[in-house]
Design goal:
The complex is a heterodimer of chains A (383) and B (175).
Chain A (H helix, E strand, L loop, with lengths): L13 E4 L7 H7 L5 E6 H5 L2 H9 L5 E8 L5 H13 L4 E5 L3 H14 L19 E4 L12 E4 L2 E4 L7 E4 L8 H21 L4 H23 L2 H23 L5 H13 L3 H19 L1 H5 L3 H4 L11 H19 L14 H11 L6 H11 L6
Parallel strand pairs in A: 1-8, 2-3, 2-4, 4-5, 5-8
Antiparallel strand pairs in A: 6-7
Helix pairs in contact in A: 4-5, 6-7, 6-8, 6-10, 6-13, 7-8, 7-13, 9-10, 9-14, 10-13, 14-15
Chain B lengths: L1 E6 L4 H24 L1 H8 L6 E6 L5 E6 L5 E5 L9 E5 L2 H8 L5 H6 L3 E4 L2 H18 L2 H7 L8 H17 L2
Parallel strand pairs in B: 2-5
Antiparallel strand pairs in B: 2-3, 3-4, 5-6
Classes of the chains: A alpha/beta (383), B alpha+beta (175).
């Protein structure tokens, strides 16, 4: 391992996971000097009655709190303003987002507004941001894959800063009931995030540790979650959500991946699940990538990832990684009912897609890379 | 969106159970130090005036045990008062305490699962954990104690039976 090459890695997020993890929230918030958090609840989490579980867990925690429930999936700045007003008017000092996707984005954006001045929302970028209030995320099954990253996105607007990463993520199995497909979709996104982060900087041992851990956890839990039942299923869901956290942290530290960005664009166009589309692109392209860029794979043997062997009997070196990623992608696709390219509407403008993917990556992606991936995945030129 | 305020409620029965357990364990520690030579030796190695507490965050209950000037170990109660506490062992929340005190999790497992916070010397904490393990062996039948301690000790039966009688008598009647 050559550590003389420049590397960087930042993870300000504490993961508290496992049985009765929610009960730690009061104590952990007190450690962050926060005594009166504002809980933001997605509409779905509210409908599932998940806050009753949280409330029960907070009992005996000596804490006052506020709850803003019903954050919609299509939230915009109006919702941010409403939440920011509630935060300020009632004297809150921390934010807790219960659920994934929009509610986490709203919580991050509210955090920008309440930590400084509301107009900061218009100019908040990588540099110049002051410290934000403590943000805790309590994930449920599913999510956008952006919750534990340095990005927030709302109604076509995007914010990026290391300060947006949550201070803590609390993963509790009681919060992981719900639609299996959402969990599998999130696993597809985590797979793409982890695999691309791993291959983007194989010389960075910290990135490798997080991305490798995500792949190892997915290998162990994805199939078991799909086929499991009852309490065992819930425990495998815990594995998937932890894998998502590790993958998101790796993703936050890696350059934007072509599979991730193109996957988001294609999923929007095709009105398909993004996790499924990413799994499709990754499964179809990883062998080609291994052939084209073997140097990215040679450093990433199962042993170098620190978890011995991957579930690909007999395979070694990067073959094991390729085999594992393909197997996981296949599991995501079959579980979500991927019907192959036949169901996909045709398109004739790949350059448009590549441009959109580049915009998705905020310019940090080469259009030629996207075109190459499209050529590999759809060799006939027709989708 | 809809806003409301709330306050974390109470768990009076669990709190009462944990308080009662801590009260009895505290008295049993003092009793065991007078009955068992190994436990006495553990305390003898600790400095004069050494005081430790074991409690639940954020608001208790706690047990406080201290070593007097004459070397006697005494259960001080739930509040250290003006005494300096040299070793604070805190269980992160009431649910974690319930897992430990209903023997669903051993002390070692609870520590591995980050449920305990120790503020003080590691050597003293190890000694106190050894003492607490031995006290649990005295207080609990073998099949329950095996769940509570990492490894059930291979003590001769006389030590278990006579020691248990002594610890219970002293703890119950404050002898």
């Amino acid at each position: 391992m050559n550590l003389s090459s420049p590397i960087g890695f930042l993870c300000p997020t504490k993961i508290v996971s496992g049985d009765r993890a929610l009960e730690n929230i009061p104590n952990e918030l007190a450690g962050l000097d926060a005594r009166k958090p504002l809980f933001l609840l997605s509409g779905e989490a509210a409908a599932q009655g998940l806050f009753r579980v949280v409330e029960k867990a907070l009992a005996d925690g000596e804490m006052r709190y506020g709850v803003l429930s019903g954050v919609p999936e299509e939230a915009d700045l109006t919702h941010v303003r409403e939440a920011a007003l509630a935060y300020r008017d009632h004297g809150h000092d921390a934010l807790v987002a219960v659920g994934g996707g929009a509610v986490a984005d709203v919580a991050k954006t509210v955090n920008i507004a309440v930590s400084g001045r509301p107009e900061d929302l218009g100019r908040f970028h990588e540099t110049g941001a002051g410290p934000l209030k403590p943000l805790v995320i309590v994930p449920t099954l599913g999510g956008s894959g952006y919750e534990t990253t340095r990005w927030a996105r709302l109604g076509g607007r995007r914010w990026r800063s290391w300060g947006l990463m949550p201070k803590m993520v609390v993963v509790d199995p009681r919060m992981l009931a719900g639609d299996d497909k959402r969990g599998i979709s999130a696993a597809g996104i985590a797979l793409a995030q982890a695999a691309e982060a791993l291959l983007s900087a194989p010389a960075n041992p910290f990135l490798r540790a997080y991305a490798g851990a995500a792949l190892a956890i997915l290998s162990r839990h994805l199939g078991a979650f799909v086929r499991g039942e009852g309490r065992a299923k819930r425990l495998h869901a815990l594995g998937l959500v932890n894998a998502s956290q590790a993958a998101s942290i790796a993703f936050a530290n890696a350059p934007p991946g072509v599979v991730h960005c193109l996957g988001r664009v294609l999923a929007r166009r095709w009105k398909q699940d993004p996790g499924m589309v990413m799994a499709f692109l990754l499964g179809a392209s990883i062998e080609e990538k291994a052939r084209r860029e073997p140097e990215a794979f040679t450093a990433v043997t199962p042993l170098s990832l620190g978890f011995g062997t991957l579930p690909t009997p007999g395979a070694e070196g990067f073959g094991a990684l390729v085999g594992t990623v393909k197997a996981l992608a296949g599991e995501v696709l079959s579980s979500l009912g991927w019907k192959g390219q036949g169901i996909v509407p045709s398109f004739d403008d790949r350059r448009d897609l590549a441009r959109e993917a580049r915009e998705e990556a905020e310019g940090g992606l080469d259009e030629e890379e996207c075109l190459k991936l499209l050529d590999v995945v759809f060799p006939a030129g027709e989708v | 969106m809809e806003y409301r305020e709330g306050h974390s409620g109470e768990k009076p029965f669990k709190r009462a159970y944990v308080a009662l357990t801590l009260w009895f364990v505290g008295r049993a520690v003092a009793a065991a130090a007078a009955v068992d030579e190994e436990i006495a030796a553990e305390f003898a190695a600790l400095p004069e005036g050494f005081t430790f507490s074991l409690g639940v965050l954020p608001k208790g209950p706690h047990l406080v045990v201290g070593k007097e000037r004459n070397g006697r170990v005494r259960y001080i109660g739930g509040d250290p008062g003006s005494r300096r506490v040299h070793l604070k062992m805190s269980i992160r929340n009431l649910e974690a305490a319930m897992l430990m005190f209903t023997f669903q999790e051993s002390t070692a497992t609870a520590t591995a699962r980050n449920r305990l916070i120790v503020d003080g010397e590691v050597a003293a904490a190890c000694a106190v954990v050894r003492v607490l393990d031995a006290v649990e062996v005295y207080l609990l039948p073998k099949f329950v104690a095996s769940l509570a301690v990492k490894r059930y000790p291979d003590w001769p039966w006389e030590r278990v039976v006579l020691g248990r009688a002594g610890v219970y008598l002293r703890a119950l009647f404050g002898m």
